[in-house]
Every structure is written in structure tokens, then in C-alpha cells.
Amino acid sequence: MGFTAVSGLLNGITCILMGAFVYFKNRSAEVNKSYSLLSLGLAVWSFSYFFWQISNDRQSAMFWVRLLTVGSILIPSFYLNFILSLLKLGDKRKKIFITAFLSSLIFIPFCFNNLLIRDLKPKLGFKFWPDAGTLYLPFLVFFFLCVIYSCYLIIKRFKKLSSVGQNQIKYVFIASVAGFLGGSTNYPLWYNIPIPPIGNFLVSIHVFILAYAIVKYRLMAINVVITRAGIFLAVYTVVLGLPFVLSTSGKNHLVNILGPNWWIGPLVLMAFLGTLGPFVYIYLRKKADAILLKEQLRYQDILKLAAVDMTRIRNLQKLLDFIARTITESVCIRHSAIYYFNPEAKRFEMKAGINPKKNQPAVIDLKNELVVWLEKNKLPLAYEEINDRSGNHPDFVILEKQMRLLNASLALPCILENKLLNIIILGDKLSGNTYTTDDLDNFLILAKETALATENAQLYGKIEEDIKQRTKDLIELQKQLIQAEKLATVGTLAGGVAHEINNPLTAILTNVQMLLRSGELDKESLEMIEEATKRCRTIVQKLMAYAKKPLAETAVFSKINLKTIINNTVAFLRYQLEQDNIKISIKAPAEAYLVEGNHNELEQVITNIILNAKDAIKQIKKSGIIDITLSQAEGWVKIEIEDEGTGIPENMINRIFDPFFTTKDVGKGLGLGLSICQSIIKKHKGKISLRSNINRGTVFTVTLPGLNNISIANILKDGGRDG
Ligand code: ADP
Fold first, then answer.
1. Is 202 contained in some domain?
2. Which helix or strand (DSSP H or E) is residue 710 part of?
């Protein structure tokens, strides 16, 4: 089977496959239908070619040549039809096609006598090659008239097409030139001109490129494709050509140098050039791209940098603003808008935009056809493109309307894991240029990064919100714990308080009874009653102040003299401690130990440590002393509270600040006291620590930042509230 037979078979198969593929891709589109018809004509020609080339007897060769000629007669009008529908020439199209088609039919009967095919003869190694009949020349004239007229229509309409249409037609034009020139290499031999049909295989390429131009949604700029293909051909012509030249023209020379192994020369050269080839190709391609795609490469770089920055912005709003600004400014477009999917409202909401139009809709519904299309196709949609296609498909008519309502020259879907997260709407370019395929490819990458970055920002926002809520809950819980602990302490103090009140109450009662009995208003007795009543009031007030809900005062920090706090607390606990035979000694040589803090909270800390010390002493002794020492150094005030109690075992020291750690009996300790003390001291930016000896005692040390530079007089005024 010769080369021509193979090319015929190959062309035939390509035509059938491509024709069917394009037809089923969109059966309702005129372009697709007319393309399939053309492929059918070409397939008849190609298969006849194949069977003709493998025919062994003259009769069957003649049969296939006649059928081949029928195919050739159909091709020009089918081609014209295809170009007419591609150019959307409407009704005019039908008339031109029908005229061309009917004219071509005139030639068909002549396929079956000798007016088109005179005879079959051996030519240029082919067994049965036809001689052209009388009508063959008029047929060729008709053939090329159709083709030339098609080209004329293309050139005439070209300017009126959109850039997308123009790009498509450029592909068609180049494919047609290649196909027809290739096919034409069959004709010279009909007139005994000894040129073999070497261009046959170009028919397959022609069919293939046409299909690509129709079906492929978006075509690469053809000048880029041709430049790249040109560079490729040039590089590989050198790679294969130089060794070839060396092995033919330089053979004698090589034999002189290398002897019988002369062939190593060209082989080494080929290996060398073959290795170098790809690098040279890539280098030249980059250079060419830099010239052809200058503008794109410029903003492509900016967008790449922006993508890195994007991942760093955690605030969703800031991120969306940044994206809108970057695209608008780097690509130089009139306006932009970013619609963000709000899962709660189940719709897209405009969250950011640069120079948005006044009528820019604030929301896009989930059922909006554009949303559905973008989610399904995951591709950018250019207004010009749909406008171009709206004649073809009803879906595009709706899409065109939606895009118009959104002022969109381009709608960009930001998709993550098949979910449409954002829609970026872009207006026209300031330059008036349209969006190219490479623009869209770049935007698609940007859109993916946008989806990822916004998802991250949204998650981050959620986590932040969660943390805030939890912190709030914790603070609330802590307040409740402090309160619970206080109430527990109030319970312990109740006995002492009752006793303290009992004394003045007895005094009041005695004096009142005396007054009643004597019937006179004795001033001294009345004064005693007043005095005793005031004492009762003070005690009750203190208890109330201690047990008071911490809410109001917790946040209030003021300048405090720690000495006052200690004195107040000790006075308050004195009765309780006396009951247990425990004395307190306070060593505080200075007048003032100034800190910034909360009165109520610091009193709670001291109360808790003293009561723990008392419990510790009681466990091993009948009586004891608690020493409280105040001291201050540069920047710090220190309180040390020392007891003679049980001490704390080594293995427990680390645990006593844990919440709910207690060694006391049920009902006596909650195990919260020290944990609360620790958090209060931490809040005051201080430290609490201890050292302990078993059966000898424990020293708790509280250190707080001091306020030495404040005038003592002021502080005394401030701190002396309760005492
Ligand atoms: P509670 O007093 O309710 O048990 P705290 O958190 O105030 O809770 O104390 C926890 C534990 O620390 C106490 O149960 C006790 O075992 C130990 N502790 C605290 N202070 C002292 C001290 N001065 N001497 C010995 N043990 C102490």
C-alpha cells in the first residue's frame, strides 16, 4: 500500500470522525451542521481515493475515480456553505449555497462518461492515473471560484466580526489554505505535469484544525500559535537538516577523516543538536512571547505577586478589596465587582468593587443562569463571546442578558472543590482591547487563588469569632467562680460576723432597756447606742462589700495602698482568727505600699491566703502566729504571709494552684481559692509563689508592680476608703 493510499485512508477516517464529533457536539448549530456536511464530501473523496489507489484492475480503479470525482464536485459548494454559516450571513447564505450546489450538480453526470475522466494511464509510478477530460478544466475553474469567493467573503466580513470571531476565522482561513493547496497537488498529474500528490495529508490537518476552531470554546491567538509553530519548524529543520547535509554533501570529506566509520560524524552532530534543540526552542519561544504578549506578561507578573500577598490577608473584606483593586489597576479596566457567596442568605452579595456602576446589582440569586453556567462550566465568560454565540443557542441569549444586567464584559468564577465561592465581574479594558485567551487563562489561575484565599480568610474570621466567644464565656465563668468562692468564704466568716454583731447589739439592748426603765433620755446612753449601732453597720457593710458581686468593680483599677488592704482584711478576719487562737502580726515599716489594682480582688487574695494559713496551723497546733511582712524595692511591692502550719508536701506544690485541688474535707474547701488568687494576681501583672517546709510552715509571696513615683498623700487619700 503506497503513501497516497495511506493518506487517502487517513483523510477518510479523520473526516468521518471529526464530522460526527462536531455534529454531535451541537446538533442545532448551523456551523456544526455545515462542517459535518463538508466533512462528508471530503470523506467520499478520501475513501474513493484510498480504494482507487489499492485497486488492481482497471475497472474497479475507474469506478473509484468516478466516485472520487463526485466527491470533488460536492466539496466546493459544501465549503462555501460552511464559510457562509460561519460568517452568519443569514438568508443570503441559503441563496448563494443553493446556486453553487445546483451548479455543481451539472458536473455529476459527466463523471460517468469521458468528458471529465478521459482515460486511466500509468503515470509517475501510479498504475491507473486519470487523464483530464474536456470538462475537467471548467470544473476546476468552478472549484476554485467557490474557494476564492469564500476567501473573498472572509476578508470582506473580517472587520465586522468580534475579536473572538476574527480569531476563529483566522484559524479557518489558514486551515483552508493548507487543505486546498495540499489537495491541489493531485491535479497536475491529470494534465501529465509530473508533480506527485505530496500535499494529500494536509487534508487531514485541514479537517482537524477546522473542527478545533469550531468546537474549542476559546482559541489561542493564532499569531502566537503560528509563531510558535514557525520556531519549532525552524529549530527542527536545523536539528535534522544539518546532519543530513553533512551526511550527503560532506560525506567524502568525512570518509577521508573517519574512514568507514564516517557515519559517526552526522550521528554525533544529530545527537548534539537534538539535545540542544528543546532549549533553543524554549528560549526562542520565550523571546517571541515577550514581544507578542508584552502587555499580558506585564500584568501577569503583577497578578502573580498579588497571589502571594493574597494568602497573607486574613480579613475577608480587606482581601476582597485588595483583589478588586489589583485586577482593576493592573489590567487597566473600567470597573470591577466581586460577588461573595453568603451561605446563610444563599445568594451572592457584592462585597467589593472599584468604580462600580450606579445600577450594579447588590446581589445575584443562586438560580441566576449566569451562576448556573459558571458553576457548571468553571470557565470565564466573556460578553463578546456570548454575544457572538447568542444567535446559535437560546441559553446564550439568557446569558447575554444576565451579563448585560451585571455590566460584565467578563465574568470570572472562583471555584474551590467544585463549589462556586465568588464571582468576579470585570468591565471593559481602558484600552478598548478585548480580553484574549491568554488573559482568560491568567484570570482563571487568579480566580482559583482568590477562591482559596477567601475561603481561608472566611475560616480565619470564623475561628477568631469562636475564640472571642469562648474567651467571653470563660471570663463569665471565672466571674461566677470567684463569686462562688467568695460566698463559700462568707459562710466560714458567718460565725465571726454573728459574734461581732452580737456584742454591740447586747450593748444597744442593755442601754435601751435602761432608758425604758428610767424613763429619762440619758445622753450618754444614747451616745453608746449610736456608737454600737454604727459598729453593727460597719460590720454588715464590710461583709456586704466582700460578698458583693464582682461585676461592677472587677474592671476598675485604682491606686491602692497595700498596707490598707492588709489592715482591712486582718480587721475583718480578726474575730475568726481569735476564736482559733491565732494571732496576726503585721510588719510594714513604710507608710505606703503603692500598687495599681482592684481593691475587692486584692482583699480576696489576702483573705484566702490567711484563711488557708489558719487551717494549716489548726491541723497541727492549738494556737499559732501568722506573720505578714510588707516590703518594697525598685518597682515592686512584696507581701509575704508566713504560717506555722502543716506545710505542703513537695509533690503537691505544683498542684495547689489547680482549680478544685483541695485536701480539705467535703464542704470545707472548694479547691478554688488559690486558683482564683493566681488569676487575680496575674491580672494585676504580678506573681504568686510559695516555699514550704513540712510541719514547719509555709510562706506565700505575692509580688506586684509598685507605683513608687506617685505622691503618698494622694494614695493615702485614695486607698483609705475602708479604713
Ligand atoms: P481550699 O482552701 O478550698 O482547699 P485552695 O485553692 O485555697 O482551696 O487551697 C488548695 C489546697 O492547698 C488546700 O486544700 C491545702 O491543701 C493547700 N494549702 C493552701 N494553703 C496552704 C498552707 N498555707 N499550708 C498548707 N497547705 C496549704
1. yes
2. none
Is the pLDDT score of 233 beyond 60?
Answer: yes
175 located within any domain: yes
Distance from the alpha carbon of residue 704 to the mean position of ligand 1, in angstroms: 21
- Nearest protein CA to atom 23 of ligand 1, as residue: 613
pTM above 0.85, yes or no: no
Q: Where are the alpha helices (DSSP H) in 106-162?
A: 136-158
Mean pLDDT to the nearest integer, 705-716: 57
226: Cβ–Cβ under 8 A, 6 or more apart, which residues? Answer: 174
Last residue of a domain, one of 461, 496, 522: 461
> Which of 606, 598, 607 shows the shortest CA–CA distance to 493?
607
Residue of 176, 396, 380, 62 lying closest to 184 (CA atoms): 176
Q: Which of 489, 652, 662 to mutate to test the pocket of ligand 1 (most atoms within 8 A of CB)?
A: 662
Cα 329 to Cα 639: distance, rounded to the nearest angstrom:
63
Say how many Å lie between the CA of residue 277 and the centre of ligand 1. Answer: 83
Edge-first strand listing for the sheet containing 687-693: 582-587, 624-633, 636-642, 697-705, 687-693
**Mutation choice for ligand 1 from 652, 654, 656, CB with most ligand atoms inside 8 A:** 656
Q: Are residues 632 and 691 in the same domain?
A: yes
pLDDT of 81-119, one tens digit each?
Answer: 999 988 888 677 788 899 999 999 999 999 998 899 999
Of the chain, the percentage scoring pLDDT greater than 90 comes to 42
State yes or no: pLDDT of 621 exceeds 70: yes
Could you give the 3-state DSSP secondary structure of residue 207? helix
Any ligand 1 atom below 6 A from CB of 48: no
| Residue 569 Cβ contacting ligand 1 at under 6 Å | no
Total domain count, the chain: 4
Question: In this predicted structure, what is the pLDDT of residue 412?
Answer: 93
The pick from 481, 487, 612 for probing ligand 1's pocket by mutation, whose C-beta has the most ligand atoms within 8 angstroms, reads: 612
352 and 375 housed in the same domain: yes
Q: Are 632 and 705 in contact (CB under 8 A)?
A: no
Q: Note the pLDDT tens digit of each residue in 585-607.
A: 999 998 899 999 988 889 889 99
Bigger pLDDT: 585 vs 549: 585
Ligand 1 pocket: which of 604, 674, 678 to mutate (most atoms <8 Å of CB)?
Answer: 674
How many H helices and E strands in the chain? 23, 15
Closest to 675 (Cα-Cα) out of 697, 685, 660? 660
**Does ligand 1 come within 6 angstroms of the Cβ of 662?**
yes
pLDDT tens digits for 67-78? Answer: 999 999 999 999
CA 611 to ligand 1 centroid distance, Å: 9
Please tell me whether residues 128 and 237 are part of one structural domain.
no
Question: By mean pLDDT, which of 13-22, 410-419, 568-577 is the weakest?
Answer: 568-577
- Inter-residue contact 350 to 383 (CB < 8 Å): no
**Average pLDDT, whole number, for the chain?**
86
Q: Which three cell numbers stand for residue 16?
A: 468521518
Count CB atoms within 10 A of the CB of residue 151: 15
The domain of 368 spans 296-461
Q: 179 CB less than 6 Å from ligand 1?
A: no
Q: From the CA of 568, how far away is ligand 1's center (Å)?
A: 22
**pLDDT of res. 551:** 41
Find the 663 Cα to ligand 1 centroid distance in Å.
Answer: 7
Helices (H), 293-347: 294-310, 316-331
Q: Indicate whether residue 616 lines ligand 1 (CB < 6 A).
A: yes
Distance, CA of 24 to chain centre:
36
Residue 324, SS3?
helix
- How much distance in Å is there from the Cα of 657 to the middle of ligand 1? 9
